[in-house]
Automatic annotation (TrEMBL), chain B:
GO terms for biological process: protein-containing complex assembly. InterPro entries: Nase/OxRdtase_comp1, Nase_comp1_CS, NifE, NifE-like. PROSITE patterns: NITROGENASE_1_1, NITROGENASE_1_2. It comes from Mesorhizobium muleiense. This is Nitrogenase iron-molybdenum cofactor biosynthesis protein NifE. Residues 45-443 form the Nitrogenase/oxidoreductase component domain. One of its GO terms (molecular function) is nitrogenase activity. This protein may play a role in the biosynthesis of the prosthetic group of nitrogenase (FeMo cofactor). Belongs to the NifD/NifK/NifE/NifN family. It comes from the Bacteria. The keyword Electron transport does not apply. Pathway: Cofactor biosynthesis; Fe-Mo cofactor biosynthesis.
Length: 460, 491
């Protein structure tokens, strides 16, 4: 069981986190016709927007209530009202996802009450548009929690409650924020290949997959439909992926009685086997030939790849569920998790991370813990540490702004695990050092042989 | 907050700004940033603006006193380049948690954070940024910075520009105020000279100031401080001993230029290094100011010689693009000086300007654009995304030059696009920079993808497949005649 080490510094150095409202907006972006709205000052929105755009290379719908000094002192309910009405008139969204920020939460505003009033007052004007609130102050949590709160808010706010007639082939899937567009697409194919009908919430594969529409659309185009969210209660079974999706899965269970199964990770042979068995037992169908073929390919990739993984020291910084997903992947191929850094101590998954300890911290912590590691695994902001430590960086998670196509990288189920093995093994091969007489000299000073790296810039 | 409101009031009263002077007292009081419409606003906040102006100072530790979002979502995101120190790219934030806020530990955490940075990185200065939440809970960053300065013996500078104070533009101005109050004039240089200048509002994006600096070096002009591009703290602290200044990005730092003139008698002019004639004019104005301040007038002639040489080289290089770019239609959708600065050179080689945004342009700018473009209708304040998309998808322009904000409108309309704002990948300043800009326009317009991505999908156009089947006698098929026809018959 990993020991959780809490942060003791006062100055965070090179943050690992992106903010909680950004995570909530991310989830709302997986809904068709959606418009996320930050309740805060315009900068909160602008920063998140720029980060999304840099990651996805797409125009991202995201708006702000534009709180100013007066609103900060006197209350911002009228700003919220004006913003919702403006958005409704200008962009006709099917969903407005309100994400609160630290500013409005520090004021302690009753946003839920405000939204209830706005809905009541403008019932007719707002017809055809759902307005959902996620309480996501920046001073708490990070993307994972924001994402989970938004999904919970959508279920609680939109899904029809009560026990319903169940559709025997319908599966509700709640993917965590660490799944990419490619992951979601591939998972849908897999589920459909068993004759099942998946409803995925949020479905970023429909909205953030980078396509060229034939007209200008101000909201998202594609993703889970609001109608599908409303009808989630008719699913036979719910599958949640990632510990942070337990809360929305529980909300669905409480509201509609749809039972859930939670997969902490879908990367790796064993977890995929469990997933496939579950699909088989729900559908009553045997695994299709192409799924079997993929499994054999993964077995072979493990056999070919394990030479490169054994004994390697891996330093990972990621949000809790992604940290778990990757750490178990590397450990499962014989690597050692030399450093594990994450954003929050709230997640129950952390103690299961196969590392001696998990540091709650930032990329400054990663940089000091990763000295001597063979591979850094984190998002694009790890590039500075990678340069200074001269350790290759595998970019994962959010944001990845200095490489193209991160949304189309597959990392789950048989095929994604296979691809991931190849990617990592290739990084190791590309960075292999040819043997030198000095390095192999049996009489060399063995004490200093591991100190080739320059000391990191970050402290302690 | 009272001192902050005084600062804001001061920032909105700018005698050196024509636009500001044109307003009556009441309008001036409202400031130059338009009030924002909730649900229809775009752009950064005052904190963003302050950080943009100050962060390129390379050897300073920039510490953001805030919950995570202000710094966590925005760090290391700009294209300014350093020739030495890298500390400015290291991100520092107090990352306030709920507990910090509830327990009122903000100021204490800030002080400790300053101490940690001092011990670990020993920078010449730490800039501390206030933000919405820390302003709201009333953290007194000025007091903390004062105490830290005394205790740790290094400059700890409060940057009082919380996001809720207003727009990015206001933040630019408040950053300038912080430099005036706490930095400029605090260090006496031991080597002041008659050819020392300051460049204000140059950010060294993609290193583009390095396309200009060698020209100044050649003339014997020394850049005392370039604020903020590739700057060191000491350069800025001793900037008050320069003899003349050039202000590059007019909306951002005009108050800084004006106040430095008032306080230290440093004359300035507004100029641009974008475009060939503008670069030449900037060099001329600089040396004229220096001569006025006592430099040897022989520099005037040397400058003219250099300009003549450089212009000839640049025009010759540009001429080679004329054939490829003549008659191409450019839409310039960007604010500020950049618009008219490049227009002249583009038109000189036969490019047509079909529209330009004048959102951030001054009255003078607009006059100049009017003269150049002949049609007023080509000028627009701003264009809605939908309109812009329509214009581009109807191919009413061959390329759009703009900032990242409208990038995807052009790309989704399958129109060539070139970034000329802060995230751009190429340096465009000076003579070589203009040639680079034209080269990039050429590359963008003539990329072979455009004809491919505009092709309809096969299921939308039903091409005459029979004509393309291998059994017809085109050259390739002829070789495989028998085989191909046999296959076709089977189908």
């Amino acid at each position: 069981m990993a020991r959780i080490l809490l942060q003791s510094k006062s100055a965070a150095v090179n943050p690992l986190k992106s903010s909680q409202p950004l995570g909530a907006a991310f989830a709302f972006l997986g809904v068709d016709g959606a418009m996320p709205l930050f309740h805060g000052s315009q900068g909160c929105t602008s920063f998140a927007l720029v980060l999304f755009v840099r990651h996805f290379k797409e125009a991202i719908p995201l708006q702000t209530t534009a709180m100013d000094e007066v609103a900060t002192i006197l209350g911002a309910a009228d700003h919220l009202e004006e913003a919702i009405l403006n958005l409704k008139n200008r962009t006709k969204p099917k969903l407005i996802g309100v994400c609160t920020t630290a500013l409005v939460e520090t004021r302690g505003e009753d946003c839920a009450g405000d939204i209830a009033n706005i809905k009541l007052k403008h019932r007719q004007e707002l017809a055809g548009t759902e307005v959902v609130l996620a309480n996501t102050p920046d001073f708490d949590g990070a993307i994972e929690e924001g994402w989970a709160r938004a999904v919970t808010a959508m279920i609680e706010g939109i899904t029809r409650s009560g026990e319903r007639a169940r559709h025997p082939k319908k599966i509700a899937i709640l993917p965590g924020c660490n799944l990419t567009v490619a992951d979601v697409e591939h998972m849908r194919d897999m589920v459909e290949s068993f004759g099942l009908k998946p409803v995925i919430l949020p479905d970023i594969s429909g909205s953030l997959d980078g396509t060229v529409p034939d007209r200008w659309v101000a909201t998202t185009y594609g993703g889970t439909s609001v109608e599908d969210i409303r009808e989630l209660g008719t699913a036979m079974q719910c599958i949640a992926i990632g510990e942070h999706m337990r809360r929305p899965a529980k909300a669905l269970l409480g509201l509609t009685g749809v039972p859930y199964v939670l997969f902490q990770s879908l990367t790796g042979l064993q977890d995929t086997d469990r997933f496939v068995s579950l699909l088989s037992s729900i559908s009553g169908a045997a695994a299709p030939a192409r799924v079997r073929r993929r499994r054999a390919q993964l077995q072979d990739a493990m056999l070919d790849g394990h030479f490169h993984f054994g004994g390697k020291k891996i330093a990972i910084a990621a949000e809790p569920d992604q940290l778990f997903q990757l750490a178990t992947f590397f450990a499962g191929l014989g690597s050692e998790i030399a450093a594990a850094v994450t954003t929050t101590d709230r997640s129950k998954i952390l103690e299961k991370v196969p590392a001696v300890s998990v540091q709650i911290g930032d990329l400054g912590d990663l940089e000091s813990l990763a000295v001597g590691a063979d591979l850094l695994v984190t998002h694009s902001h790890g590039r500075q540490a990678s340069e200074r430590l001269r350790i290759p960086l595998m970019r994962i998670g959010f944001p990845v702004f200095d490489r193209l196509g991160s949304q189309h990288k597959l990392a789950i189920l048989y095929q994604g695990t296979r691809d991931l093995i190849f990617e990592v093994a290739n990084i190791f091969q590309a960075n292999q050092h040819a043997p030198t007489p000095e390095a192999l000299d049996p009489l060399r000073n063995r004490e200093i042989s591991h100190e080739r790296c320059s000391p990191p810039l970050a402290g302690q | 907050m009272s001192s902050l409101s005084a600062k804001i009031k001061d920032a909105f009263d700018e005698p050196a700004c024509d636009k500001n002077r044109g307003k009556d007292a009441k309008a001036r009081k409202e400031g130059c940033s338009k009030s924002l419409t909730p649900g229809a606003a775009a752009g950064g906040c005052a904190f963003d603006g302050a950080k943009i102006v100050l962060q390129p100072i390379t050897d300073v530790a920039h510490l953001v006193h805030a919950p995570l979002a202000c710094e966590g979502n925005s760090w290391d995101n700009r294209g300014a380049v350093s020739s030495g120190p890298t500390l400015w790219r290291t991100s520092f934030t107090t990352d306030l948690t709920e507990l910090d806020l509830v327990m009122g530990q903000g100021e204490r955490k800030l002080f400790k954070a300053i101490r940690e940075i001092k011990h670990t990185y020993a920078p010449p200065a730490i800039f501390v940024y206030s933000t919405c939440v820390t302003a709201l809970i009333g953290d007194d960053i000025e007091a903390v910075c004062k105490r830290a300065t005394e205790k740790f013996g290094l400059a700890v500078v409060p940057i009082n520009a919380p996001g809720l104070a207003g727009s990015k533009n206001l933040g630019n101005k408040l950053a300038a105020e912080a430099l005036l109050d706490h930095v400029i004039g605090t260090v006496e240089p031991d080597d002041p000279g008659p050819y020392d200048i300051n460049i204000l509002g140059e950010f060294n994006l993609s290193g583009e100031f390095w396309l200009v600096k060698p020209l100044l070096d050649r003339l014997g002009i020394r850049v005392r401080a370039c604020i903020p591009g590739d700057a060191r703290y000491r350069d800025i602290a001793s900037a008050h001993r320069a003899r003349a200044a050039m202000m590059v990005c007019s909306t951002a730092l005009i108050s800084l230029a004006r106040k430095m003139e008032e306080r230290w008698d440093i004359p300035f002019f507004e100029g641009s290094f974008y475009g060939i004639s503008d670069t030449s004019q900037a060099l001329r104005n600089l040396v004229r100011l220096l001569v006025r301040k006592g430099a040897d007038p022989e520099i005037l002639e040397r400058t003219e010689t250099l300009i003549a040489q450089q212009e000839a080289i640049a025009w010759k290089k540009l001429e080679s693009y004329r054939q490829r770019l003549q008659g191409k239609r450019v839409l310039l959708n960007t604010g500020g000086v950049k618009s008219w600065s490049v227009v002249h050179a583009l038109m000189e080689i036969g490019i047509e300007i079909v529209g330009t945004s004048v959102k951030k342009s001054t009255v003078q700018d607009k006059e100049r654009i009017k003269q150049v473009l002949k049609h007023d209708k080509h000028m627009f304040e701003s264009m809605a995304a939908r309109e812009l998309y329509a214009m581009l998808s109807e191919h009413r322009a061959d390329i759009m030059l703009s900032g990242g904000r409208t990038q995807f409108i052009a790309l989704k309309a399958k129109t060539p696009w070139l970034d000329i704002n802060q995230e751009r990948q190429h340096p465009y300043a000076g003579y070589d920079g203009m040639v680079e800009l034209v080269r990039q326009i050429d590359l963008a317009i003539h990329n072979p993808i455009w004809s491919q991505v505009r092709q309809p999908a096969p299921w939308d156009c039903q091409p005459d497949l029979i004509g393309e089947l291998p059994c017809t006698r085109n050259e390739t098929a002829y070789l495989f005649d028998e085989f191909a026809c046999a296959t076709a018959h089977e189908c």
